[in-house]
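User: My instructor asked us to take a sequence, write out its structure as tokens, and then describe one feature of it. I'm not sure where to start. Here is the sequence I was given:
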Amino acid sequence: MGIEALSRGARQVYFVESSPPAIKLIRQNLASLGVAAGFELLPLEAARALKKVETGGSPVDFVFLDPPYGMREEYARSLSRLASSSLLHRTSLVTAEHEKKFDPGGEFGILRRYRRLEQRDAALSFYRWEPRS
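Assistant: Let's start with the prediction itself. The structure tokens for your sequence are:
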């Protein structure tokens, strides 16, 4: 998703990955496509990466979460952290990919799910900023 975003004009993409083989693959893919700028690869767990990006000061427009399906608690942890961070603004969109049979939740602080799209064994939950009245 990040490489696609860069190809469509994203100014900055953060790749967050804690698996060394996956980090190597991301680097290889970026190099093979000649992508040398506009991204930062953060070899960290999601919570630490969110904190690092948040200290950078700039809100983000899009977030795509795709933790390993077996780490179900990571969805709530990451979505809750995002909802209480300064990374999101009123038009930010957050997408979480997950197993179709798993529901990560519909509400996390200011984040509300507005759409769920199922595709084969996977699903995408889409969230946006919707503070309570």
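For the description part of your assignment, you could build on this observation: The longest strand covers residues 88-99. Try explaining in your own words what that tells you about the chain.
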